[in-house]
Amino acid sequence: MDAIPVKLKAIHVINVNPVMSHIMNIIKPFIRKEHMKKLHLHSGGADFLKGWLPTENLPGDYGGVEEDFLTLHEHTMKRLEIYREWFEEEEKLKVDESKRPTDGTNFSGNIFGAEGSFKKLDID
Predict the structure, then answer these.
(1) Superkingdom of this entry's organism (predicted)?
(2) Which of 3, 59, 84, 110 is the most buried (most CB within 10 A)?
(3) Taking the model in full, what pTM does it have?
(4) Which residues pair with residue 11 across a beta bridge?
(5) Is the Cβ–Cβ distance between 56 and 64 less than 8 Å?
(6) 15 within some domain
C-alpha cells in the first residue's frame, strides 16, 4: 500500500465471506496498523455505507437515490457501445519498428548493469 500513488481514506470490502475474517486475523500481524484501520470488511447488507457515503451517491440497491445496478450497467454498456469504433481502432495500433533509431542510442547493453560499477578491492 506504500506504492499506491493516491491517498486512501478507507477500503470497504462488502459481502465478505465469513472465512475472510479468519484469514485477516492471520494476516493482521504483517500489515501496518494505519493500513488496518483503513480496511473495513462487511459481511452483512450495505446499510453501513450510509454512514460513509452520502445517499445521493449510492445506487438504489443500497438505499441511495441513484438508479439501481442493472440500470447503471445498461447505461455503461450504451456508453461503451458509442465508443466501439474508437476501441477497435485502438486495438489495431502497433509499434512501427522501422522508425526506431538504430544509431547506437540503444541502452540495452551493459551500460546500466552491474559490470563496471564496483571498484577493485585491494586486500592487504
Answers:
(1) Eukaryota
(2) 59
(3) 0.50
(4) 39
(5) yes
(6) yes
Reading the block at residue 123, the C-alpha cell is 586486500
- Count CB-CB contacts under 10 A for residue 64: 18
Cell, residue 24: 485477516
- What the block records as the C-alpha cell of 14 is 462488502
Cα dihedral 26/31/36/41 (nearest 10):
-40
Residue 20 belongs to domain spanning: 10-45
All three cell numbers of 31: 500489515
| CA gap 112, 102 in Å, rounded | 19
Q: Which residue has the cell 489495431?
A: 92
CB 71 within 8 A of CB 43: no
15-63, pLDDT tens digit by residue? 888 888 889 889 888 988 888 888 888 877 667 777 778 888 888 888 8
CA-nearest of 48, 42, 47 to 21 is 42
